[in-house]
Amino acid sequence: MSSDQKPQPEGSGDELELRRLVDGQAVIPIGRVDGVIFDMDGVVTDTAKVHAGAWKQMFDEYLRHRTEGTDESFVPFDSGKDYLLYVDGKSRYDGARAFLDSRHISLPFGTPQDPPEAQTVSGLANRKDKYFMKQLETGGADAYTSTIRLVSELQKRGLGIAIISASRNMKEVLHAADVADLFDEKVDGRDAAELGLKGKPDPAVFLEAAKRLGVHPRRAVVVEDALAGVEAARRGGFGLVIGVDRVGQAEALRNAGADVVVKDLAEVTISEEI
Fold this sequence. Notes:
- The chain is of the alpha/beta class.
- Helix content is 43%, strand content 12%.
- The protein has 11 helices and 8 strands.
- The chain has helices spanning 13-22, 48-67, 81-87, 92-102, 121-139, 145-156, 170-176, 189-195, 204-213, 227-235, 250-256; strands at 27-29, 35-39, 160-164, 185-187, 220-224, 240-244, 260-262, 269-271.
- The strands form 2 sheets. Strands 4-3-2-5-6-7 form a 6-stranded parallel sheet. It has a two-stranded parallel sheet with strand order 1-8.
- Helix 2 (48-67) packs across helix 5.
- The longest helix has 20 residues, at 48-67.
- The chain is elongated and about 65 Å long.
């Protein structure tokens, strides 16, 4: 299915059957699933805090400078609420624009080639990326042991495994976490730009991952921690959407379209009987 095709409507065929069979259980019924697609940040790698820290450093720097010499108060970027609402799961350009819009700040978009010093949406996003890479180089990245264990077990059972990310730095993050060779297919921000794929909550990136795995979305599972990512998976007609709640937003993940929400993938089991 291409990103231009409409997803199957909810409640049709195998999609409805899979959700009914699982019925809120944290289980992957491998006899009815051909592939599993994992988001990277916050699901596979413990890098969400690094991203949030880089966003805060960049936006606080920009907002403080913007209010100097004016009557406008400096309101810092909230690395909890603002991160989850506006930038989590999105490309850095979409995230930067969404947060600026929330503050009613209008800047020219510029181009992805803008230098980090440019006073454009793209320039600010690239400055955030510079801070993120600096933190990654100094602090490295960790992979969630429970996620790696689940991925390995699914591969042993013959399922195709893909990883996606809105980040253009997927390769660097996976190498830093020493899990670069674990996944059958990868789709990142660079791929999305080259292929003209829209960002989350559009399902295009997930659909591209399913296409590369050679699986139909209704026969695939998506594992996501971001609200925009969960919404994208639901819009893409995927058979099962597992939300990972690491920050206390379980209800919001369910409202966005998650069929089941877990705090960690150690809670997910594999079933051959369902």
